[in-house]
Amino acid sequence: MAKVIMIQGTMSNAGKSLLTAGLLRIFSQDGYRAAPFKSQNMALNSFVTKEGLEMGRAQVVQAEAASIEPLVCMNPILLKPTDDEGSQVIVNGRSIGNMKARDYFAFKTELVPVIKDAFRKLETMADIIVIEGAGSPAEINLKENDIVNMGMAEMVDAPVLLVGDIDRGGVFAQLLGTLMLLDDDEKERVKGLIINKFRGDASLLDSGIEMLEEKGGVPVAGVVPYMDIKVEDEDSLSERFFSVKRGDVDIAVVKVPKISNFSDMDVFEQFPQASVRYISQPENLTDADMVILPGSKSTIADMRWLRENGFEHAIRKIAANGTPVFGICGGYQMLGQTISDPEGVEGGGSISGLGLLPVDTVLAGTKRTHQFSGRFAGAEGVFSELTGKSVEGYEIHMGVTHSAPADDRSQSLCAFTSDNTGVCIGNVYGTYIHGIFDRGEIAETVVRTLAERKGIQFTGGDRRDHRDFKEKEFDRLADILRSHLDMDRIYEMLREAAI
Known about the structure:
Blueprint: E1 3-9, H1 16-29, E2 34-37, E3 40-42, E4 46-48, E5 54-56, H2 57-65, E6 77-81, E7 86-91, E8 94-100, H3 101-107, H4 112-123, E9 128-132, H5 150-156, E10 160-165, H6 171-181, H7 184-189, E11 190-198, H8 206-216, E12 220-225, E13 249-254, E14 259-260, E15 274-279, E16 290-293, E17 295-296, H9 299-308, H10 311-320, E18 325-328, H11 330-334, E19 338-340, E20 350-352, E21 359-375, E22 390-403, E23 414-415, E24 422-425, E25 428-431, H12 440-453, H13 466-484, H14 487-498
Parallel strand pairs: 1-9, 1-10, 2-9, 3-6, 10-11, 11-12, 13-15, 13-16, 16-18, 18-25, 19-21
Antiparallel strand pairs: 4-5, 6-7, 7-8, 14-17, 19-20, 21-22, 23-24, 24-25
């Protein structure tokens, strides 16, 4: 049987996902077969495995940190929010439909056998499994029939490291308050505390740590500094969303309310001249060198939001001025003429799109989940140099997009990505392929082309495929954690759990 350890947090975005990835990299470096597990993940960032199964990207990143292939058994339940009250429920990589939160709360115990089966399958492949919790184990209104925090720890008898975020303040109250709200048997599982995202001289915490250990009865296993690690974030609390810095090459991403797979843009971080800004107001698109409409979990609702918030006029004006506009998945659909929902996938109805591409989209009940390997078929305009270059990525979408009738077109339509996955006209590009920029030469071509258009000398970057870039970041993450965590204590937790 695999040895097991679990990372839980005092709140969402305490740093569980990144610490899980870092521990997995350490265990892998130390010669163990390590694997991630999260029984239930709520996120709009997802990935498609080689088998065509959908799982949360957080566990994909963690699998990459462990140097193993992502498998859906690492994340058997994925919830993709559709509105403020409900989510699409994905079990073992396949959607079983949408549920309101109350209905799912009553239903989730039926998924316990699914979770156990997935974990048992993963156990056959690993020496160490690092489990990530969700939110906080002290959400007392959600503790009944918990399947992702202490309920999950009980299922597999896992010791727990509890993580608090000092950057937001109140870390001692976070950790002590969480311990106080746990049942005695749950608190007994907590074998170590981690203070995360600390800035400054850690010795200043000594007296606080002494009191924390005295009052909480649990030792502190480390104080981890605030880390500038360029590994994608799991959820909408991503700090990337709040960056306002403009680089020599400024890429503006429209932050629609149901943005999904925003990791598509992370690759540009390896180029010092490039900046990626997430924009919620149309006036902030001014002077951007490229505008990206990202994926969306609710395309019709997000198209309506674009219109109501003045983005429709702004994006059309930008495109008319020659600035490249790039749509991915839901963003591709929004660039078209119409989006209709006859089967009620997103509640029914139809809406006109931005009209920048002569395509129509019909949302269908069957989701396409598929890994993609192809090429840029015939890029026009600004990015014509992409033509013929290889592309790898994946598709996750409910819509089927077709060319509009010929008499509705004002310009000729060009295939952008092969196999009917995207089209372009001039400087407007649309595709269903997530991860389209991840190959180093693709991202470099985009940034270099945008720099040259402005008369700026391109100074380059690492020019690596995004996976290679992340490998360097994982090693850096592991080095930092080794220096600031008590790894002897953590290995002792694993040995004690295996007895």
